[in-house]
Amino acid sequence: MTQEGEAAVGRIAIWAAYVEQHLVDLCAELINEGNAAVGNTVTANMSASSMIQLAKKLLLESDTTSAENKAVTLAALTEAKAALEERNKILHATVGGSLVEGSTTFWNSRRKRFTSGALAGQLEAAQHSPAELDALGARLYKAMDDLWECYLSVSSRGEK
Prior knowledge:
Helix content: 55-70%
Number of strands: 3
Low-confidence stretches: none
Strand content: 5-15%
Radius of gyration: 18 Å
Structural class: mainly alpha
Mean pLDDT: 84
Shape: elongated
Order of helices and strands: HHHHEEEH
Largest sheet: 3 strands, antiparallel
């Protein structure tokens, strides 16, 4: 992997961590407005996917969040989930060489994939250039920023 690719993978990890923190913040606000302690306790051992499901459920049940803010936040949560799933394919992969100059191969043996049939137990491989990795980092940065804006819109710091 090139130094540019390594740096891009680092940015993916950094922005994904911020996405996950903003999910905690958003859930905490939706659980107990203005008092994050309860929400932080509820989400302490939850995966990002579980927090996204919880936030969607709480948003749909909320009578203090406007329809517009609900729609924007639901869209942001959907995009965050998709971006984090792509992140998983990079950060949880074994890295190998590539026949495509400048690209790196990421090998995944996700347990949920290929559990039966002819492909059972096989690896999934994808090649990514540093530019493609940077694009995922940018996607995660935007997801992080959008979630922060959503948090502000449902909190007492923003319009409801």
